[in-house]
Amino acid sequence: MEETTAHNQKPGMTARFIWRAIVLLILAATVVGGILYWNKADHGPQAVQSSAQQQAVPVHILTMQPKTVPLKQVFLGQTESSQTVEIRARVNGFLESKHFTEGGHVKAGQLLFSIDPRSFQAALDMTKAQLASAQAQLERINQQLKRYTALRQSGSATEDELNELQTDQSVALANIELEKARIVQTELDLSYTKVESPIDGLIGMAQKDVGSYVDNTSGGLLAVVEKIDPIYVRYTVSEQDMLQAKRMAQSGETNQPGIQDMRLEITLADGTKYAHTGAISYTAPQIDTNTGSAVVRGTFPNPDGELMPGQFVHVNVEGVERLNALKVPKGAVIQNPTGAMVYVANDSMKAEIRPITLGPWQDDMWIVESGLHPGDKVIVDQIMHLRPGMTVSQAPDEPAAQADGSQPKSEQ
């Protein structure tokens, strides 16, 4: 019985022994293989870095060269009439007729409204009759004065009688002048029954209908005429922009002519440029405390009536030059929450990150306020493939871009 048990346990022990031996052999082979691998292979970082240096990235480079460029300043403006006239009744009466098309053009001296003139004509006729009466009275007094002067010389009339006639003569002369003045006034009142436009321009809606009673009080507004040739364009300049412009002019960064020499260009809402240029005709003498800006007004010719009051336009101020400006194309600039930056190729042709401060947009390029210097080599393409420290080379298919604004072909 014991021999049978021992015989059954012997094969199991042999299997376990064999399995342990196999595991030990595998572990020994793994250790030996690892040692051989690390001894024969060079995994140091220097070899990988050397390989990266040998694979230079072909790029196009823009060499920074200072240029004098026109500095365009763009503001949002709105057109307004150069003269606005309220047409009001100057006498009381009923409107007889209207002689214009609402919303149309009118000329200076054009008849706009007619007010019933009959009462004013009657008043004029009355004052003329009174003048004739005063003149007749003066003629009668002159005759009496002539006769009494002769009688006084013969002693038939007293000095008091003569003095009284002389006084009557003075009163008659004053009455004549008074009636003449009344005639002038009544003629004016009669002329006011014909309401004419004082200027050329566009006229709005009639504020009173024919048949309405009008008077010369505050409620006597009949219509409004707006002169649109020339036309004004009003825009505002912030206090910050004004201070910056003054600082740049004083430091020699810009060449700014006098206000009278600056020209204005406007771009309409659909993107088209207006054919005529304008000039600055007014600058506010103070800063508006509510908006922190100052009003500037330009005057533009508008012979064809293309511009209408109330239009929104973009105003470009011409004549200011930026001296020694450095410009980079849009595609070369990396912008993130920390600011703007570009890649620059150093003397060893390695890519370096350079933080910059952007100025205004000019000719599809950014003017750089700070961060770059003349002679710096700005990388203008392959930006997404670059990392700081990478070796770059000038792309062989095109020459290096120049700082005059010429750009290489964009890679597809």
Order of helices and strands: HHEEEEEEEHHEEEEHEEEEEEEEEEEEE
Structural class: alpha+beta
How far is the N terminus from the C terminus?
90 Å
Total helices: the number is 5
Number of domains: 3
The number of distinct β-strands equals: 24
Instruction: From the alpha carbons, calculate the radius of gyration and give it in angstroms.
Output: 49 Å
Write the SSE topology.
Layout: H1 2-40, H2 45-54, E1 57-59, E2 61-63, E3 67-70, E4 73-88, E5 93-98, E6 105-106, E7 111-115, H3 118-154, H4 159-191, E8 194-196, E9 201-203, E10 213-214, E11 221-238, H5 239-250, E12 254-255, E13 263-267, E14 278-283, E15 293-300, E16 312-318, E17 321-325, E18 327-329, E19 334-336, E20 339-345, E21 351-362, E22 365-370, E23 377-379, E24 392-394
Parallel strand pairs: 1-24
Antiparallel strand pairs: 2-23, 3-17, 4-11, 4-16, 5-7, 5-10, 6-9, 7-8, 9-11, 11-15, 12-17, 13-14, 13-16, 14-15, 18-22, 19-20, 20-21, 20-23, 21-22
Transmembrane segments: 17-38
Domain Multidrug resistance protein MdtA-like barrel-sandwich hybrid: 84-223
Domain Multidrug resistance protein MdtA-like C-terminal permuted SH3: 324-383
What can you see in these coordinates?
This protein has three domains: 81 residues, conserved putative lor/sdh protein from methanococcus maripaludis s2 fold (Beta Barrel), CATH 2.40.420.20; 105 residues, Elongation Factor Tu (Ef-tu), domain 3 (Beta Barrel), CATH 2.40.30.170; 139 residues, OB fold (Dihydrolipoamide Acetyltransferase, E2P) (Beta Barrel), CATH 2.40.50.100. It has five helices and 24 strands. Strands 2, 18, 19, 20, 21, 22 and 23 form a seven-stranded antiparallel sheet that branches. Helix 3 packs antiparallel against helix 4. The longest helix has 39 residues. The chain is elongated, with a radius of gyration of 49 Å. It starts with a helix and ends in an 18-residue tail after the last strand.
